[in-house]
Amino acid sequence: MADAFQFSIPIQIRMSDLDPFVHVNNGAQCHYFDYGRSNYLEHVLEMTIDWATFDLVLVHVGMDFRDSISFHDQLVCESRVVSLGHKSFRMEQQLRDLRTGIVKTICECVLAGLDRTTGQGIPIQEAYKEKFRTFEHLDD
Fold this sequence. Notes:
With 140 residues, the protein is of the alpha+beta class. 22% of the residues lie in helices and 36% in strands. It has one domain (20-136): Hotdog Thioesterase (Thiol Ester Dehydrase, Chain A), CATH 3.10.129. The radius of gyration is 16 Å and the shape is globular.
């Protein structure tokens, strides 16, 4: 992953996120990435998303746990779109401690267009693609 992320959001670590080793549980980290991804999409697409009708769906998530996350880490979730296809696009995300700069966990995910009425895949809206291209300075 490259260093420049245009979007980040602070993550509040809760006591309930900790595992028996007093580190943030892997499942809680999935929620952090969901939170970061949702906020990224609302920010870049300039809309409040109704998740019951939104025409994008998460179809793949992969995470690499590089360093444990502790309760007192000052965590941010950084997110970006890195490539656009016809019916899907790829995002990269990372959880980083602001005090140390250490990247704790990285995530790669794919979102796809979905017609929620039929359950069938659809092309990503051109308006979405244009906003991603503009925000991330992506080439076609």
